[in-house]
Structure formats: C-alpha cells, structure tokens
Amino acid sequence: MNDVLIARIGKPHGLKGEVTVRLHTDAPDERFAVGATFQTEPAANGPLTLRTHRVHNGIHLLSFDEAADRTAAEGCAAPSCWVPHRTAMPARTPGMPRTSSG
After folding, report:
1. Which residue, 36, 39, 58, 62, is CA-closest to 49?
2. pLDDT tens-digit profile of 8-24?
3. Fold observed for domain 3-87
4. In this structure, what are the phi and psi dihedrals at residue 61, rounded to the nearest 5 degrees?
5. Fewer beta carbons below 10 Å: N end or C end of the chain?
6. Under a CB-based contact definition with an 8 Å cutoff, are residues 87 and 49 in contact?
7. CA distance 47 to 25
8. Domain boundaries, the chain
9. Per residue, what are the HEC states of the chain?
10. Is the separation of the CB atoms in 39 and 3 below 8 Å?
C-alpha cells in the first residue's frame, strides 16, 4: 500500500454526525481541510469527504458528507483514514519550525 495513515475514526459525538478521531499526523489543521477526501480501510466504508473539523476539549471531531447524522456516523466507526503517499507531507526534523511547504 502506498498510502499514509492519518487517523482512526472513533465513536460518534453528538447528533450532527461528528466522530472522534485518533490522530496519526502532526499537522491535523493542514490534513483536515474541508473538502478533503480520504480513502478508508475497510474500503467499503469510504471514500469519505470532510465536511467539518473542530477541536472540543482537546479532542478532534470530524464530520463527513457521507454521514449526515449520528446514526450514519455510527457506520463510520473503526475505519482508518488514509491519504495517497504522493499527497503526504514531507517529513520534518523534530524541533524545526514548520515551513509553508510542509
């Protein structure tokens, strides 16, 4: 597989279709841009198109166009979100400031 894991989807949050995520990226604000599309594992649960991203009490919450309410969001639980390797951001040295290119 030539994709990069960026998050694992957790349980639903609230009634509007948001889900919690366990991050596997150090740049969530850059990764989770509205309109971004993510492949999933299992593939039958995706692809998912990001509708919203917010942080509530330190927990990242995402909603997807494919899950308009809590019931639909429950169907999103457990898959992993992946992006193609070609769109993965370049690695950076720990402690170095982030640049506009990554």
Report:
1. 36
2. 888 889 888 899 988 88
3. Elongation Factor Tu (Ef-tu); domain 3 (2.40.30)
4. -120, 130
5. N
6. no
7. 19
8. 3-87
9. CCEEEEEEEEEEECCCCEEEEEECCCCHHHHCCCCCEEEEECHHHCCEEEEEEEEECCEEEEEECCCCCHHHHHCCCCCEEEEEHHHCCCCCCCCCCCCCCC
10. yes
Q: Give CA–CA dist 47/40, Å, rounded.
A: 6
Gap between the Cα atoms of 51 and 64, Å rounded: 5
Tokens 């917010």 belong to residue = 54
Place of tokens 């969001």: 73
pLDDT for residue 82 is more than 80: no
- Which residues contact residue 77 at a Cβ distance below 8 angstroms, ignoring those fewer than 6 apart? 9, 10, 11, 12, 19
Q: Quote the pTM value.
A: 0.73
Residue 54: predicted pLDDT: 93
